[in-house]
Design brief:
The protein has 15 helices and two strands. The protein is an all-alpha fold. The termini are far apart.
């Protein structure tokens, strides 16, 4: 009866005729097959992004860890070798145009900066800073923490420029015309920068420690919710592959710094409770919440950025291969920069301030563990760097290249604002020369 009404085209429109047409109306998805296949691929891309992103994050995290441990392990040994050469070359009367090689001069400057800044950190009272921050209101602490994050990016962006200016001023060929203010003023600026950046990280750690020790955990909740603001400020912007690479490097640096701050907070709390293992189980849920929120925000942010900008998940493999290529290049004989400096320029992570803060804390609170920390760091660093990264880096490159890649001569580092460091050349523009 209803079919008869729907087929019959006589009579005026009625509600029954309209309902019958709507209930029996059909459509064919295959008429727009390309559109639906594209939508399905976007869903698959969003599902693949977390896996590929975390692979990149893990590789970048260990790059930062290796650069951080390098300050405690190989840098002191290289500094001692530079001092030994500086003392023995004049006595032996070896004919040379310069006593030290450029790399040895840079190592010596880094060692002096570490010693001076650690000595200056001895006069900073962490307990007084903690109680001063704890006496502030929650809203004020939230504003302070946001200001510290912005200041950390500004310091990271300008700090590497200060250090690079010092290294070049100290190693610049003397035959050139003097166009700088001298090594000593550059050295004073570098020491001043590293010291201020270490103080900044200490204030960040103190604020996070106050959030952990607050009774209602409201400050910790507000600080974690601040991570989700990144989604609003990022996903609706236009991103190219090069811009996404910059953001990925910044996220790697941010995640490593947050883990380091969590480590400092846990060590401070455990030291206050006489290293009672039971108190560790009290800290772990809060630390897990912070880590989970950070990972969740990164995954959601990158998933929707790739979706809105039509970027495939395979781009993260290219980013990882680019980092591996830089790692391999920094180990060559004709490398133009130190490995730790290349990580700083790429990701915005400068290990010296964090190393100064960690050294000051270890020296003040963990006298016995200081030696254990040094030798364990030496073991971990030596295991991670040659055996792990140098063996994995060629594998990553082989998945992206059919022949060893070489960069063009116009490759140059370009710094951008707020700690986002752009690569020498977008990874897709790297010239591959087949032998």
């Amino acid at each position: 009866y209803h079919e008869h009404l729907c087929i019959e085209d006589t009579g005026e429109p009625s509600l029954l005729r309209f309902m019958c047409a709507e209930l029996t109306r059909g459509y064919f998805l295959e008429h727009n097959e390309a559109k639906y296949m594209e939508r399905r691929e976007k869903v698959y891309t969003c599902m693949r992004v977390p896996k590929e992103l975390e692979k990149l994050m893990l590789f970048g995290f260990f790059l930062c860890l290796d650069a951080f441990l390098y300050v405690f392990t190989l840098l002191p040994l290289r500094t001692l070798l530079a001092l030994l050469r500086l003392l023995t070359v004049p006595c032996c009367g070896l004919g040379s145009s310069r006593f030290l090689q450029p790399a040895q001069v840079c190592d010596l400057l880094k060692g002096l900066i570490m010693v001076l800044c650690c000595s200056m950190m001895h006069y900073i009272d962490y307990a007084m800073m903690y109680h001063l921050i704890r006496g502030q209101s929650i809203i004020k602490l939230y504003i302070i923490y946001n200001m510290l994050e912005v200041a950390d990016r500004l310091f990271s962006s300008f700090g590497q420029d200060i250090l690079d200016a010092l290294y070049w001023t100290a190693t610049e060929p003397k035959s050139r015309k003097r166009a700088h203010i001298g090594v000593i003023p550059h050295f004073i600026m570098a020491v001043f920068y590293v010291f201020l950046h270490a103080i900044l990280i200490m204030v960040q750690a103190s604020t996070l420690n106050v959030a952990f020790n607050s009774h209602n955990k409201s400050l910790l909740t507000i600080m974690m919710s601040n991570n989700f603001v990144e989604i609003k400020g990022s996903v609706f912007k236009k991103f190219e592959k090069n811009n996404l690479f910059q953001m990925s490097n910044s996220d790697i640096k941010e995640r490593f710094t947050n883990y380091a701050l969590l480590l400092i907070v846990c060590l401070r709390n455990m030291e206050q409770f006489s290293w009672n293992p039971d108190h560790l189980w009290v800290l772990l849920p809060d630390a897990f919440m912070v880590v989970t929120s950070e990972v969740t925000v990164d995954i959601v942010k990158h998933a929707f950025i790739t979706k809105f900008n039509d970027i495939t998940a395979d781009v993260y493999r290219e980013y990882k291969a680019s980092l591996a290529f830089e790692l391999v290049s920094s180990r060559q004989q004709n490398a133009y920069t130190d490995y730790s400096d290349s990580v700083a320029r790429r990701m915005g992570f400068i290990p010296l301030p964090l190393a100064v803060l960690m050294s000051a804390y270890v020296r003040q609170k963990l006298i016995f563990s200081h030696f254990f920390f040094y030798f364990s760091s030496l073991t971990i660093s030596l295991c991670i760097s040659p055996s792990s990264f140098l063996s994995l880096a060629p594998l990553y490159l082989n998945h992206s290249f059919t022949a060893p890649p070489t960069l063009t001569e116009d490759t140059a580092w370009d710094h951008t604002h707020l700690g986002f460091f752009s690569p020498p050349v977008p990874f897709m523009q790297i010239t591959v020369k087949c032998k």
